[in-house]
Amino acid sequence: MQFENLKAVIDFAIEKEKEAADFYDTASQEESMSGVSEMLREFAEEERKHQAMLEKLEKEGIGKSLDEYKLKWITDLKRSDYLVDMEYKKGLGYKDILAIAMKREESALRLYNSLLENAETEDTKKLFKVLCQEEAKHKNALETMYDDYMAKIGD
């Protein structure tokens, strides 16, 4: 995937974050279990934070904003690597909703890593590193929740 300029990269990433937030919002409204619904709303809010961060970068410029961002390694538990893709349907169980969310974050992480590999400028590389880290954080959090749940039910 090629982009004309850095603004196009940021606009693309903003759209991806909006799509993710919309997915989690829609799913949260369809869930009857209040705990699952709340969890999905929290995921949507995290995606909106990414969107706001990207919009700020676009407005203020990448250099200064990203210089303040601290990159750190996020452990990949690889739990989602062993799950099959599923389609969200109203009424799915907690485990399945977590699995869908993990796969979505895995897919976003894979996309941003691919874009990072093909980035040409240092600013674009830094932007994709930041986006990779944010998606890796979400993936790790979801995989941890999944592991905790599976341990609780005896898996």
From TrEMBL:
Listed name of the protein: Rubrerythrin domain-containing protein
Listed InterPro entries: Ferritin-like, Ferritin-like_SF, Rr_diiron-bd_dom
Gene3D superfamilies per the UniProt record, alphabetical: 1.20.1260.10
Species of provenance: Desulfonema magnum
Occurrences of domain Rubrerythrin diiron-binding (ranges): 4-57, 96-149
SUPFAM superfamilies per record: Ferritin-like
Domain of life of the source: Bacteria
GO MF, one annotated term: metal ion binding
A Pfam family it matches: Rubrerythrin
